[in-house]
Write a structure and sequence with these properties.
mainly alpha; 3 helices; 2 strands
Length: about 100
């Protein structure tokens, strides 16, 4: 499809403006770079280390299937019936509380 790059860039800039404004008004601006880094690293851990690890996730989450498996760069990726990337069964949610002044 045909995308107007100028309009798309303008829309993204508007979104960033809103996000940065919210960070400022909430007082979280000084912490968000590290919070984003930690969350990003955790999100990138959604790959399965081996095919056996991927199969364990499928076995432990049958209600999300049927699944599609793919492999890239020696890692395995599992997608649920909606096409959403499925986290490994042993994936831990990241804690950001220690990064914030709470």
């Amino acid at each position: 499809y045909n995308v107007d790059v100028i309009e798309e860039a303008d829309a993204l800039a508007d979104l960033q403006y809103v996000l940065d404004g919210k960070k400022l008004t909430s007082g979280l601006y000084p912490y968000m770079e590290e919070v984003f880094r930690v969350v990003h690293v955790n999100n990138m851990a959604k790959a399965h280390r081996t095919e056996d690890h991927a199969n364990e996730t499928i076995d432990k989450r049958p209600e999300e299937g049927p699944f599609t498996k793919s492999t890239r760069g020696g890692l395995w990726f599992i997608y649920n019936r909606d096409g959403k990337l499925t986290k490994p069964w042993d994936h831990k949610k990241v804690s950001i509380a220690s990064l914030l002044p709470v």
